[in-house]
Amino acid sequence: MSAVPEPTTGTREPTVATSETRSDPAGFEPRITAFVCNWCTYTGADLAGTSRLHMASNVRIIRLPCTGRIDHLFLVKAFERGADGVIVSGCHPADCHYTAGNYHARRRFGVFRELLAFMGVDPARLTFSWVSASEGKKWADVVNDTVARVRDLGPFDAYHGLAGAAPPADDPFAACESAAAEAATGEAAAGGDTP
Question: Which of 14, 26, 30 is closest to 157 using CA atoms?
Fold first, then answer.
């Protein structure tokens, strides 16, 4: 009978980004969210993993049927929920399993970049690529390049500051919003929608 070996103390623990490591640039490891196509990029990412290619492990993949399905709110929510960078990757042009989904994604990408820049997000935090099922090495390169670029940019905490910020004093819609809120409160106190 052999005894069960004791766990060694030299085992590698997974890196977890805590508030201490995120505020310390030396210990910063970016959190990347990747929205990928089920048919090409996801399979390419699987190939990269099964081929044991070296790539950063701090990318979380969200598999979608097609990159044409990606909405701008997906990207905004990713940053809102703590992503430091986002990858959008799908089939090569003319290779889409849904005929034209990757063309839709390519057209939307320009709008995504402008929207993020308008929101104060550096467009360098967003990566768009084409990766087929047989391109595991290309996926590893996209991941490593994105992680390195976002690591150089540093942690993205600006969205959290914007979420709770008060509207500027010269905001023309602030008065309308506060009037609507007061009217709603007055209706609730008066008994709702009774005449």
Answer: 30
100: nearest Cα among 132, 66, 65, 63: 66
Cα dihedral across residues 143, 147, 149, 155: positive or negative = positive
- Please report the pLDDT score of residue 102 as a whole number: 83
Residue 132 contacts by C-beta under 8 Å, 6 or more apart in sequence? 40, 41, 44, 91, 92, 95
pLDDT in tens, 136-193: 999 999 999 999 999 999 999 877 655 555 545 555 555 545 555 665 566 555 555 5
Q: Are 87 and 34 in contact (CB under 8 A)?
A: yes
Residues 6+ apart with CB under 8 A from 50: 136
- Beta-sheet pairing, 126-130 with 32-37: unpaired
Q: Please count the other Cβ atoms lying within 10 Å of the Cβ belonging to residue 86.
A: 25
Q: Which two tokens stand for residue 128?
A: 């768009």
